[in-house]
Specification:
about 260 residues, mainly beta, Tick-borne Encephalitis virus Glycoprotein, domain 1, 2 domains, five-stranded mixed beta sheet, 1 helix, about 5% helix, elongated, disordered N terminus
Length: about 260
C-alpha cells in the first residue's frame, strides 16, 4: 500500500513539475494566426491537417535599437500533422523582408509571417515567450510563361515570367494615353496608345514606357533588356466613340525576342 501511495505521489510530483501544454487553437484559410511553442493549430476539417510549433531552433535577429551588419533571422521547427503522419519542417523569418519562409503541403502554402517578442539587447527570450504568426493559403498555380518569338497577352496588373530565364518578368502597369481613332469615325490622325510596363530582373524592377500605333510624334514601341528586346505590338479592345474603356479591360499584345 505504501508503495502504491509512493508511486501516486511521484506521478503527481512529476505532473506538477512538467510545463503545461498550451491548449489547441484553430485557424482559417487565408487568415494569419498565432501559436506558442508546443501549441497545435487545428485547421478546418476539409483541410485535413494541423500545424504545431515545436521549438525555436535559433534566433539571430538584430536587437531593437542596435545597429547590426545584418538583420538576422529566426529559425523555427514546425510539424504538419495529418492523421498519424507528421512532416517536420524548418522555416525562417527575416525581418528585413517582412515575409517568412514558406513550405508547400498538399496544395497549400504554409508561411511564417512574424515572430514575437522582439529581441532586446542583453535580454534573453525564454522559449515559452515565443509566438509565431503563420498563414495558410492555397498554392497559386504556376504563372504562364513568355516564350521567345511568340506573341503573348498581358492584362492590367498581370506579370509573366520569361520561360528561357525566370529571372526576368514583364508586367503591364497602366495605360498612360489612348488617342486612337474610335471605330466608325474618320480621323485626321490614327492615334496611338502609350502604356507603362515594368521589366523585372531578379529583385530590380525597371519601369518603361512603350507605344503602339502611330509613332511619328516620337516614342518607341520596343525596349532592350538584358539579351532581349520587348516589343509592344497592339492593344485591345478597340476604342469606342460612346463609352470609355475601363483600365481593367485593356489587353496588350507583346513579343520578346533575342536582341539583334
Amino acid at each position: 500500500m505504501r508503495s502504491l501511495f509512493g508511486l501516486l505521489g511521484l506521478l503527481l510530483f512529476v505532473a506538477g513539475c512538467s510545463k503545461p501544454v498550451p491548449l489547441p487553437t484553430q485557424f482559417s484559410l487565408g487568415l494569419p494566426f498565432s501559436v506558442k511553442i508546443g501549441q497545435t493549430a487545428l485547421g478546418p476539417e476539409a483541410l485535413g491537417f494541423s500545424i504545431r510549433f515545436d521549438k525555436m531552433k535559433a534566433d539571430s535577429r538584430c536587437p531593437m535599437g542596435v545597429k547590426c551588419i545584418t538583420a538576422g533571422k529566426a529559425d523555427m521547427e514546425l510539424s504538419i500533422l495529418k492523421g498519424d503522419t507528421r512532416k517536420a519542417v524548418l522555416l525562417s523569418f527575416t525581418t528585413t523582408q517582412g515575409i517568412g519562409n514558406v513550405t508547400e503541403f498538399e496544395g497549400y502554402d504554409i508561411r511564417v509571417v512574424g515572430v514575437t517578442p522582439f529581441k532586446q539587447e542583453n535580454k534573453e527570450i525564454s522559449p515559452e515567450q515565443y509566438v509565431v504568426a503563420i498563414s495558410v493559403t492555397k498554392t497559386k498555380p504556376p504563372a504562364p510563361q513568355i516564350k521567345l518569338d511568340t506573341p503573348f497577352t498581358l492584362g492590367m496588373g498581370e506579370r509573366l515570367l520569361l520561360a528561357e530565364n525566370a529571372e526576368y518578368s514583364v508586367g503591364l502597369d497602366s495605360i498612360i494615353e489612348d488617342s486612337r481613332c474610335a471605330e466608325g469615325l474618320q480621323c485626321i490622325w490614327a492615334g496611338r496608345v502609350v502604356a507603362a510596363f515594368s521589366i523585372q530582373e531578379g529583385k530590380q524592377r525597371n519601369p518603361v514606357k512603350l507605344l503602339t500605333g502611330d509613332l511619328s510624334k516620337g516614342g518607341s514601341g520596343s525596349v532592350d533588356f538584358g539579351p532581349y528586346t520587348l516589343v509592344f505590338q497592339s492593344v485591345t479592345p478597340a476604342k469606342s466613340d460612346s463609352e470609355p474603356i475601363p483600365d481593367e479591360a485593356y489587353k496588350a499584345t507583346m513579343l520578346v525576342r533575342k536582341k539583334e
